[in-house]
Amino acid sequence: MQDLQELGLNDSVINVLLDYVKIVNRIGFIHPLVREMGECWLKKNIVTMESAIAFVREEWDK
After folding, report:
1. What is the pLDDT of residue 50?
2. pLDDT in tens, 4-53
3. How large is the angle between the packed helices 49-61 and 11-25, nearest 10 degrees?
4. pLDDT of residue 19
5. 10 Å Cβ neighbour count for 25?
6. 46: exposed, middle or buried (C-beta count within 10 Å: 0-12, 13-18, 19+)?
7. How far apart are CA 34 and CA 17, in angstroms?
8. Residue 54: pLDDT band with limits 50, 70, 90
9. Sign of dihedral through CA atoms 43, 25, 1, 3?
């Protein structure tokens, strides 16, 4: 989690990201994958819990 905080993600976005990764992969947390996704979310300007949840919902509906 500290690595994700160092990227600049706030704790609420990190929590959504971790839940999303856990649900999507169903194999638990894989640190490099989570960090890569965190970097991707930052590039997409997903910096609030609301935008993180909206992104997850959009991805889930695909």
Report:
1. 94
2. 899 899 999 989 888 888 777 666 666 777 888 899 999 999 999 999 99
3. 20
4. 85
5. 12
6. buried
7. 8
8. very high
9. negative
| Residue 2 burial (C-beta neighbours within 10 Å; 0-12, 13-18, 19+) | exposed
Q: What is the pLDDT of residue 27?
A: 61
Residue whose token pair is 């992969």: 25
Residue 17: CB atoms within 10 A of its CB come to: 23
Q: Does 55 have pLDDT greater than 90? A: yes
Tokens of 11: 């704790």
3-state secondary structure the chain: CHHHHHHCCCHHHHHHHHHHHHHHHCCCCCHHHHHHHHHHHHHCCCCCHHHHHHHHHHHHHC
